Known about the structure:
Largest sheet: 9 strands, parallel
Mean pLDDT: 97
Low-confidence stretches: none
Distance between the termini: 27 Å
Strand content: 5-15%
Amino acid sequence: MALHTRDGGFVMPNAWDGLSALMLADAGFEAIATSSAALAATLGRSDGRHEVTREEHLEHARLIGQLTGLPVNGDFEDGYGDTPEDVAATVEAAVACGLAGIGIEDTSGNPERPIRDFDDAVNRVRSAVDASKGRIVVTGRTDNFIQGRPDLDDTIRRLTAFAEAGADVLYAPFPPDLDALVAIVTAVAPTPVNVLISPADKVLTVAELQKAGVKRISLGPFLYAHAMEALQQATKALVAGDLASATTGISFERISELLARGTN
């Protein structure tokens, strides 16, 4: 929690495999998160539809922690289970796996009703907090804005209830603008707030987000998407017969150096 309460907070990028985690650690980041969306994509599956198992995500997070030695926050969707008791079991497993943090969303995995009812969502966060016993940072997250429910009042209501249930950090991806983000930060203070890159309307700088009171900045699947864009451009070059452009990148010597650092 110390990273969340210090002046300025911190940036917590999301890795999707061992090498990406090692690159982020080598760059000096102090903590790393998983991304459920990026992990699902690497497995050829969809995010938020219960297509990735708790055990798969735990092993993925464990690998990142073992390779880097950094605190790892698990982006664990809805807690991998239908009931609050299932969420508690996920938290216990995350603690046993050595994770430093875990995120619990109010999503359902059901595209027809993607957001859980208020009481169910709060009970699941409360169950996660009770199971954590202070051993792991619990982030309570509502996905209203990214699930077609642009209701700022309900978002603040949910986040406030998550804080009252004991969540250590609060998170609502992509509020519509800076005013909405500031309203969230103000309403739930002093509980730290995570932001996914920026409000939906404009990408801000880290300094601007910190000035707004944000304590943690995560990147979700967007570093992975950035890497995939590079692959797409290389693929286009390859189709056009341009082998030189298709095969640029970091050297295998650099990759070997990073992998050796992780092994050691």
